[in-house]
Amino acid sequence: MILTPGELDRRSNLYRELGQMTESGLTLPRALETISRHANRPHVRTAVTQILRALNEGNSLSTALLAAGNWLPMFDIALLGAGEQSGRLPACFLKLSSFYEERARLLRKLLTSLAYPAFLIHMAVLVFPVTSLQALVTDGSIFQFLLSKILMLLPLYALAGLVMFLAQGSRGEPIRQILDRLLNAIPVVGPARESAALARLCLALEALINAGANTIHAWELSGQASGSPRLRRVIRGFRPQLESGFTPAEAVGMSRAFPEEFVAQVHSAELSGKMDETLVRMHGFYEEKAARGFSVAVVLFTGLVFALVAAVIAWQIIKFYMSYLGQVNEVLR
User: Fold this and answer.
1) pLDDT at 252
2) Domain containing residue 60: CATH number
3) 132 lies in a domain?
4) Which of the ends of the chain has fewer CB neighbours closer than 10 A, N or C?
């Protein structure tokens, strides 16, 4: 399933409702029954029914959530499981609600920023080459005109669809690693994506640590939540070091995969015992840095589209005058 802003908003609303109901004193099974009765989407109703059945059989929340198949990511399951054990389940529901609300906002902002460049590309395809437009006006060849435009737009739609398909978390790790390397190699876009991944890592790690999750498990799940195959691979390598007595700050420093300011902040947080506050602060820092980077990337992309459209217009004008001068020369001969 491709995660759209609407899908992320629905997941955020689901967690918010569960958080508010359990915070007001309603038991989790009663809250889930309420969600199931009012669910408009069949797959939500089916998943909640499976979770309720597993809970009524005496299973823990983590086991019950796993019984629903791939309905929820492992990060959600781990955070809610840790929240159940620590007695902070309502807070974990609300934390996940904020997490998905933020993801929906960022994705919606990115898509909105790309709308104008996409409009320019479609207008350029419809107008150029001018000969097709002339044939439409003079000969009325509507079918030929539409067919030529569809054939021009089809590769663009296919490429966009392929990128969206491969970008989903359910795709194979090798494919995601290749796509990650390609996107990170793009100037401006690469650093912005890395900052966004670090922001998600900090947010997830803070939530899991506050929920009482095991340190090693918290880092590994946060690596998955970061959305970066590179960070996920690096953090998976922390386990032997952490099990042998190294601290997370030492493992982060030895990996050489994190920015210097990230390493320094994690080290200071361990010494001061304020890891949660530091992670919240770093999340805000990297989120703002990523937003600035993506804004610059969109501006540059829009400028590139403008330049391409201007170049096409200039070429069409040159072709017109060359054709006109050729006709004049023929007449003069």
Assistant:
1) 93
2) 1.20.81.30
3) no
4) C
How far, in Å, CA of 83 to CA of 165, rounded?
Answer: 32
Burial of 216-249, coded b for 16+ CB within 10 Å and e otherwise, reads bebbbbbbbbbbbbbbbebbeebeebbeeeeebb
Amino acid at 255: S
* Of 67, 99, 131, the domain-final residue: 99
The mean pLDDT value for 215-228 works out to: 86
Report which of 45, 9, 27 is spatially closest to residue 89, judged by C-alpha positions. 27
Model confidence band, residue 110 (pLDDT cutoffs 50, 70, 90): confident
Query: Last residue of some domain: 40, 71, 99?
Result: 99
Measured between alpha carbons, how far is residue 31 from residues 36, 50, 63, 101, 166 in Å? 9, 14, 18, 21, 35
Whether pTM > 0.70 for this model: the answer is: yes
Residues 323 and 190 reside in one and the same domain: yes
Q: Does some domain include residue 206?
A: yes
Instruction: Residue 127: name the closest of 316, 264, 301, 278 by CA.
Output: 316
**pLDDT confidence band for 191 (50 / 70 / 90):** very high
Sequence-distant contacts of 2-5: CB under 8 A, at least 24 apart:
2/164, 2/165, 2/168, 3/107, 3/168, 4/107, 5/104, 5/105, 5/107, 5/108, 5/111
| 213 and 327 part of one domain | yes
Nearest to 15 by CA among 106, 83, 117: 83
Residues contacting 71, CB < 8 A, separation 6+: 43, 47, 65
Cis amide linkage into residue 129, ω under 30° from 0: yes
Within 10 Å of residue 266's Cβ, how many Cβ atoms? 24
